[in-house]
Amino acid sequence: MRKAGVGITITQHILNQQRQNPEATGAFTTLLSELIVAAKVISREVNKAGLVDILGSTGKVNIQDEQVQKLDVFANGVIVERMQHIGELCCMGSEEVADLIEIPTEYPKGNYILVFDPLDGSSNIDVNVSIGTIFGIYKRINIDSDSDVLLEEVLQPGVNQVAAGYFIYGSSTIMVYTTGNGTGVHGFTLYPSVGEFLLSHEDIRIPERGKIYSVNEGNEQYWDEKTRAMVNYFKGSDNALGRPYTSRYVGSLVADFHRNLLKGGIFMYPADLKDPKKPSGKLRLMVEANPLAMVVTEAGGYASNGSGPILEIEPSQLHQRVPLYIGSKKDVEDAEAFISGKK
Ligand code: AHG
Ligand code: MN
Ligand code: MN
User: Fold this and answer.
1) Is the CB of residue 275 below 6 angstroms from any atom belonging to ligand 1?
2) Three-state secondary structure of 118-164
3) CATH for 212-339 (3.40.50.10490, 3.30.465.10, 3.40.190.80, 3.30.70.270)
């Protein structure tokens, strides 16, 4: 007799996690469930992007001083619209919006903070390469307060995240998330015929050392000597492998990160002197580095800014950038030793 079931849905998985957490109120389950609806809407648009006028640039430049793609704007709008009415958030922070996004007065407020990169890998949108959405969830410090949320309440170190994860819109749409505290990292694949994310990668563990390094070598002339020495270490034969690592670089952080999470390896976006306005490199602490740092750490890996754990950085600005070395623990520790001058 064929099994009637479709396997474990993401909703079932979140509810199981909620049941294991005595003080869980269901607020978090509501939050994650609504974010999943937003991702399904974005996934649908991404998968038909070639057919509708949603490709290309808006001709505008965002707070990040980067060309805004139409799909960036669309994805940001979908998440804000879906999430603002559920009554579980006190505010949101988006890569695409300069300031905190307040919850409109007509909707009830909650005690969670959602920070997100609505569409990661924008340069790949119109060439059919995997892109994604990255998110992190924090608890408000002054819970149940009616006062407006202060930026200081949002600028918490990544170690305070109560959950984090990402969606990849690629050959299939996959969601990976963790609630930390030893609950593990789990991946779900969207079955369009069912319209549900089903458990496909239970308890993901990243190999403690990989064979892949991911970096944009086109930035080499903008790196300092330590950074060059570090990249040459992975390209050379005097590393722990005794032979060169394989180079893989997609240009979408979520895609490069996900591959290294499953296979092992290190992704690097070093500080560079390419843009004097961005001495700490290109990637954002709050909406890219911290969420992925929580995922990789829970999966047994490590994320560093070159001198210490990403998760322990005390943020000073909503859109601050940070050098990022993330992936297999021993590879990232080697990279950190070069950048901090110990190697
Ligand atoms: P976003 O599209 O959200 O701005 O992120 C793009 C990031 C990240 O996805 C990727 O790793 C990196 O930009 C690639 O940068 P380079 O093109 O400079 O290598
Ligand atoms: Mn991004
Ligand atoms: Mn983005």
Assistant:
1) no
2) EEECHHHHHHCCCEEEEEEEEECCCCCCCCCCCHHHHCCCHHHCCEE
3) 3.40.190.80
